[in-house]
Amino acid sequence: MTPVRILLAAVAALVLAGCQAEVPGRASADGFVVKDATRLRFRPVLTELPPGPPAGAPGQRQSTDPATQEAAARALDCEPGTPDALDGRDDPALPLVSCDPTQGARYVLGPAFLSGADVGWVEARLDPATGSALVALNFTAAGARTWAEWTGGNVGKQVAMVVRSRVLTAPQIQSAITDGVTQITGKFTMPEAQQLAKDIAGA
Length: 203
Known about the structure:
Elements: E1 7-10, E2 31-32, E3 40-49, H1 66-75, E4 96-99, E5 106-109, E6 114-115, E7 119-126, E8 133-139, H2 141-152, E9 159-163, E10 166-169, E11 172-173, E12 181-188, H3 190-201
């Protein structure tokens, strides 16, 4: 897939006339409930490195030292199909060096601040205004409060959605998201959006 800028935006309480409002906590027939709440983690992106071949010996991927983090990121093999040595055993309270095997980008991520337990459902849908495919997430009441506070303080920054120590997507925050319903937008085809929704939910 060609790398694109993925964006996060709030969903209006009511969409176009004639369409139903979102009901918090309820998935449509095409939606997914997060299967294993401990596998999905939301981590702030501290640094993004461009794709490229690994350089150097594998390093400590959960260090708190910035130099060690960068060295570990440069050494990380992000080729699709490459096994991840952590494979979900990362400590959510510590930083994490990870990558997006689809895009090839490497990331230094901060400690997790939300998990799958804070997400009610995930679904792929078409934006009625543009016809573009997107992924929608609905947070729980507790998750929505944390998400509103974090997005409000981090507009313009990226957040990584991580499953089993690998980054699924790292969208940029466009605005504070206060109603708990969030859209991930980009140049998705509908099959790509459906696959991302499934991957986020662990379906």
